[in-house]
Amino acid sequence: MKHVFVLALALFGAASAAGQEPAPAPDYTEDSSWLCRPDRIDACASDQSVTVVGADGATRVEPLVPDADRQFDCFYVYPTVSLDPGANSDMEAGAEERRVAHAQAARFRQHCRVFAPLYRQITLTALREMMMRGGGRPPRAAAVAFGDVAAAWRAYLAQDNGGRGVVLIGHSQGSGMLKRLLETMPAAQRELVVAAHLIGTNVERPADGGAGGEIAWMPACTRADQAGCLVSYVAFRADVPPPSGSRFGRAAGEGNAVVCVNPAALVGDPANARAIFSTAGVGTSSRPMTEWVAGQPLPTTAFTAAPGLVSARCAERDGAQYLAVTVNGDPGDPRVDDITGDVVAGGRRLDDWGLHLIDMPVVMGDLVALTARQHAAWAAARGK
Known about the structure:
Radius of gyration: 20 Å
Strand order of the largest sheet: 1-5-4-6-7-9
Number of strands: 17
Order of helices and strands: HEEEEHEHHEHHEEEEEHEEEEEEH
Number of domains: 1
Oligomer: single chain
Shape: globular
Helix content: 10-25%
């Protein structure tokens, strides 16, 4: 846990969260309270073109072409990104919120309408102060953040859903918010949930496969054509598994295990995960990508894919459960042999964070494809 403090301090300075009151509660009937809504120009309408880099170094550009009739919705809650000074963020869509929606949520619009509320999330500033005090999380700040997500969900149901199926998608803090939303969700609302993709957070279930655990009513997905189920995992390099004391991949509850569902195994080939990376890397908390083909400049598109470069499998080792990511670099070809995405602070890789920064990119193409399969199963079960 101390590394959370190190990371936040190193990257985001020493602004104080003390004495800061949260911004007024949002009104989700107002367009301005949403980071993304369908049919408007915002962060989720960004260019998602991908440069595909073959093992021989040849490249081609593939644009994103949304379905003509998107028959279901995606409700996305973003991870901890706010640089605001208080314990809770404001309700302004800053550059950091727009960037993460562009990187994580916009691609899902290929098959679904994307709704992403702004919310007064726990900030990176508050994260730093929590670690200075020895861990935990500020109860009031957490309650404010969850209250917003719950209010946004209710507003979405009232004004936008119209009986459509919806996939819940989150990462890190966003997944934690959705986990709580699902645990308190009334039965009538559960019927609308096509699936929940809670990425980059621990969802704990009894290790022996017995009943109970978190979101006990929702089974883990075991096949692509299954609705009402859970996809969750935390990503680590296969050769750098979660160390002792890791905040990810190790269950806190005695007798529990962390859920790992591999999207690549459900819809494709786990030996060839459909990874889609940000071309230049994921920002200042990780090392940048400098090239995808030896001696060639970076592609001009914001995203790059390298078929066959990444494999992913669910693994269990020394009491940890995680998505083990292997990079299949070949020194004999001109394509890059490794990827970036490890959390780095002070020049040192923080192994207990694993590949948290690229939890979604390592299987992004599989996640997007899976939503369509899951909706088809949801609709078929209802005769739609």
